[in-house]
Design goal:
The chain is an alpha+beta fold and 173 residues long. It has 4 helices and 8 strands; from the N terminus they run E-H-E-E-E-E-E-E-H-H-E-H.
Length: 173
Amino acid sequence: MGPLLHRRYSVVVDGVGGDAAALMSRFSAHPNYGVPDDVATFVKTRGVDGTAAVGDEFSIRMPGPWNGPVRVIGTTATTWRLATLDGHLEAGQIEFRARDEGGAVALEIESWARPGDVLSHVLYNIVGLAREVQLNLWIETLLRLAHRSGGDVRDGVHVDTRHVSATEVVAAG
């Protein structure tokens, strides 16, 4: 229901104490390491704690009616991808990435999602509350990961948002 949104959040972190793979390994194995706990808490409901493997599932708990189940659908040394499950406010996927960039680490979160039901559509597209919660959650996650890496953010967090047309979705499929 509603438009498909494609969002990319990115930041470059200078002076990181480690490399991209180490930072992503820590985050994917323990998502609460990066996610601000006053906004969201990842609770593993399927899989082994302290790891991130395809098929693992989490319930993302947030204040209000925001809890949402997700499943890990992809991992590499520097990426971690989740898909929403039935009961989530959104229908889509999100990928967390890190890459080494000449002494710095570039962090990126990329999501493709649309509201999962009528209530979500109202909260996201009409009232705008869910859209703002999501925006701030992922910006704060990038900033927290940057801080925990021991580095300094270069040029702030960049966010690009676009609505994906039905024609683009069909062409990509």
